[in-house]
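Budget justification note: compute hours in this period were largely spent on complex prediction jobs such as the one shown. Inputs:
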Amino acid sequence: MNTAATTTAYLPDDAVAIPEPQVIKGRLSNTQYFKYWRTCAAMGPIFLTAFIICWGVLGHNIPPIPADHTADQMAEFFRTHYNEVRAGMAGAMLFGVLYLPWTLSITKVMEWINPLENNIATTLQMWGGGLTVVPLVTSSVFWLTAAYRPDVLSPVTLQMLYDQGWLLIDMFYAITTIPMVAIGVAGLTDKRAAPLFPRWACWFSIWAGISFLFELLMPFFKSGLFARQGWLNFWVEFIVWFAYIVIITYYVFKAIPRLEKERTAALAKA
Amino acid sequence: MPHPENDMTQNPPDLATEEAVSILRGRHLPGVLVFIIADMAVFCMLFVGFMVDRMKDVALFNNSAIALDVRFGVANTLILVTSGLFVVLAVNAARAGLRKTTRGWLLLSFLVGAGFGVSKIVEYSIKISSGITMQTNPFYMYYYALTGAHFLHFVGGMIALAVLWVLAGREATVSRNTFNLIESGALYWHMVDLLWLFLFPMLYLLVPR
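Corresponding output:
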């Protein structure tokens, strides 16, 4: 590929306003300014991989224990697999917080979409993404509690703890919808000829966030597509969420070198 | 300073030219289509799920479906198709730069479309007052879930039509950006139509009457 042409393509077109001084932080070199951005962005795939292994495989949540299983079946599961679940949930609680730095990397890129406009979408994305850690970690506590003393807890109590974990992680979906919609809406207003987040990715993000609405039906069913183990409310929704993480991470990594060049050009203009 | 070619609000485009339309499509439409295709993919999976579950208990599904009032289904189909036609006319008017005509068709589309909302609320009320909920049996689970999800899409479309009507009212002529939004909104509204055209025969007409 022609380097000069590529460099030109990455320079901001005139439709992109020069950011405010506090966004540019003009006294910082690019190395200082963009320090940790890539590290934070890398936390997304690390979170995803670790979460699938810890929460999904070790925790036996991919797929979940069906909601129509009896309390005795649930008790038998915990009394057999308690050590795996303990390890899985401890890992899920550790790696679950990586969603926070990953969210921040998106926030930093979003600040450059429309630097002269207000930062409502960016702030919503940061808070929504950061608070997504809460259901991820808190639901893991319920499963960890069940695995802590499964020999003395009654089957009904174990069933309640497992149900509570799933009801929390599924029904708190709206906190994740907020950043997904915020990224999409902000990205669609990007005036660059080649937006930082392509329009298809923005629309996908909005759609994926809204598609979580099907989780509203989850508490009403113990079997079928809307149950926690159902093909729609588990397989489709979780795959959509995982895909969103991969897609957004990819475009954050693509945006950072572009912004490095844009910032250099913006500083030269300022 | 914004680039003159990118500043859509200050440079109303010649929307009648193929070039302008081509630029707009290139910049915006593929994104909206991702939303629409993803949405329709999930609905297609739901349709397959319905048919698979129906095959497991055809008698139950037929006995439940026969209790639905086809007149509501027919009325809703006519309402949505008519409203869709008015949106097409709004797009044509917008392409010709006719702001007032565009707003007129958008308003008409909204008003006719509102009939769908009224009809659905009446239909839901009758069913619920008869004690039929989504937990009555698998057929009604699909009935409420499918028509409920479709209803939420309908509400989103109505909001979009209202927003487009307001946006078109703020400009002296139809700007390039507003035209693009109207065309995107029209595509979405047609998706709402199209989904209903699958839902209606699947839920109301599949049963031999």
